[in-house]
Amino acid sequence: MLTRVVWAKTPLPGVGKFFELMRGFGKTVHFVSNNSLRTKENYESLFQAAGIKDGFNNLTLPSIAIAEYLKSVNFNKAVYCVACPETIAVLESHGFKCKKGPEMGTSYYGDYVEYLTDDEEIGAVVFDSDYKVNLPKMYKALTYLKRSEVLFINGATDRYVTLKLGSLALGVGVFSDIVSEESKRQPIVLGKPGKAFGELAMKRAGVTDASRVLFIGDMIEQDVGLGRAAGFKTLLVLTNTTKEEMMSHATLKPDYYVDSLGSLVPILVEHLRI
């Protein structure tokens, strides 16, 4: 919910004041993002620029969710990661052994037979924001997933990403979808719009009643979809979606919508004066 809700390249007007007012009203504020690609330092600088205190400490990412899930099931094998370096670093910081690669394959298809060899040490396959995904990695993932006991975990599921305003490009979710289809297995989704991801974020925020959560985002499929799956109320910020697109969506409608969070600040300030 962060990009185009809290910031673009720089903080969006009024967002820091919005969250300050929310906390002033006694609300718990917790942030969720599908973007495991950013470093902790980058997130902290963005939160600071927006005037948001303790932002990173109150942030749930797929990388964090995956690590916490593996700990919850007492996972003790190696993880094959089709994931960005930041996700791998998070998993390793929690004590998990990670295997990855290769980053390139050969031009001759016959060489790819080496990627069909199983590795009994692998106990989980994790997909999360690997923009260097390739055919060798997919071969290896499919090979390991032939064993039913190997966990299949997906972080960011975005099939499309906004690389420039008004234009969508293919996201890495298309590749994990191919692996899911070919392996005939459904992953544990620990990114938006997965229900388990929403529930983990709620747990980390110390909230127990899903009906008391207002989930704010700018994407219908990912943000409103997560809210619907987890039983949250939803607020769609129209920084990435037009009102016409929102109204014409076949299955998902937010409970509320607004042009920007900053546009709510005068209303909230006035409420304080009453």
TrEMBL record:
Pfam families: Hydrolase_6 (PF13344), Hydrolase_like (PF13242)
Cofactor(s) annotated in UniProt: Mg(2+)
Residues annotated to bind Mg(2+): D218
GO MF annotation terms: metal ion binding; phosphatase activity
Cofactor, free-text remark: Divalent metal ions. Mg(2+) is the most effective.
GO cellular component, one term: cytoplasm
UniProt entry keywords in alphabetical sequence: Hydrolase, Magnesium, Metal-binding
Residues where substrate binds: S33, N34, N35, K192
Homology family: Belongs to the HAD-like hydrolase superfamily.
Protein name: 4-nitrophenylphosphatase
Organism from which the protein derives: Euphydryas editha (Edith's checkerspot)
